[in-house]
Design brief:
By secondary structure, this protein is mainly beta. The protein has helices spanning about 1-25, 50-65, and strands spanning about 30, 35, 45-50, 70-75, 85-90, 95, 105, 110-125, 130-135, 140-150, 150-155, 170-185, 190-195, 205-210, 220, 225-240, 245. Keywords: Signal.
């Protein structure tokens, strides 16, 4: 009996390990194209929370006239062993319940394109990578796509690079549309250095990033964690001049 259990466990290992190895080597994970939010940009519809700006405001409010902020760091700087660098984690994307296909298509003519438009995003010096699975209708298979949510306002992925120039893209029909959200979690301490200090104000100090809580901006504190929900709209488009839409009755 023990021998049979051992053989079963070994079989499971051989079933699981190859797929994981492929993802680590980048054979199955495809990166999405990212349009980054710009603080100087004026036309972007994305409402972005800038954690670096929030940290600067917090420090200046705490220090007052007792010093001038010289630098701050989420990962470096002088800090005590009990004040670890900031770490960021993204939970898997959650799509709303009615995220279903709107119609059937002539799949042989369809060129799949996937977009994630960010309505409420977050920006910091830290990366926010997350993998999502999309379905290629034409090829009847799933593909894992890597999204970088940090500072992103728009993300796009297609199985093939568009050869058409901008303005000459084939018309698109919406195949799938729904809202999505992804919870981001920050833990750790932001270190900073002051100059022209007065009184007992230290030159170097650090504070828990959870102190940046501001519910009006979507920054929520949960214990020693700072949480923010990245939200937006997901679109699965079908591009191609000959795409035929069939009624879904």
């Amino acid at each position: 009996m023990k021998a049979m259990i051992l053989m079963a466990l070994l079989a499971l290992m051989f079933l699981i390990i190859p797929s994981e190895a492929k993802e680590r080597k980048g054979k199955t994970v495809q990166p999405a194209t990212v349009v980054k939010w710009s603080q100087e940009g004026s036309s972007d519809m994305t409402q972005m929370v800038n954690l670096t700006d929030e940290a600067e405001k917090f420090i200046k409010a705490q220090v007052g006239r007792k010093g001038k902020l010289k630098s701050l760091s989420f990962t470096d700087g002088y800090r005590l062993p009990s004040e670890p660098p900031v770490n960021a984690v993204v939970s898997p994307l959650i799509y709303e319940a009615n995220c279903t296909y709107t119609a059937e298509f002539d799949y042989s003519k369809c060129k799949d394109m996937f977009t994630w438009d960010i309505d409420y995003g977050i920006f910091s010096p830290l990366s926010l990578p997350v993998n999502v699975t999309v379905r290629l209708i034409r090829k009847h298979r799933n593909v894992t796509v890597s999204l970088e949510l940090n500072g992103a306002s728009h993300l796009t992925w297609s199985p093939r690079k568009a050869k058409s120039t901008e303005g000459k893209m084939p018309p698109a029909i919406v195949k799938q549309k729904c809202n999505f959200s992804a919870e981001t979690t920050y833990t750790g301490y932001i270190a900073y250095r002051l100059g022209e200090v007065r009184g007992d104000m230290p030159n170097n100090d650090a504070f828990n990033i959870a102190s940046l809580e501001d519910r009006k901006k979507g920054l929520e504190r949960r214990g020693d964690m700072l949480l923010y929900n990245v939200t937006g709209t997901f679109l699965h488009l079908c591009r191609g001049k000959r795409v035929k839409l069939h009624e879904n009755n």
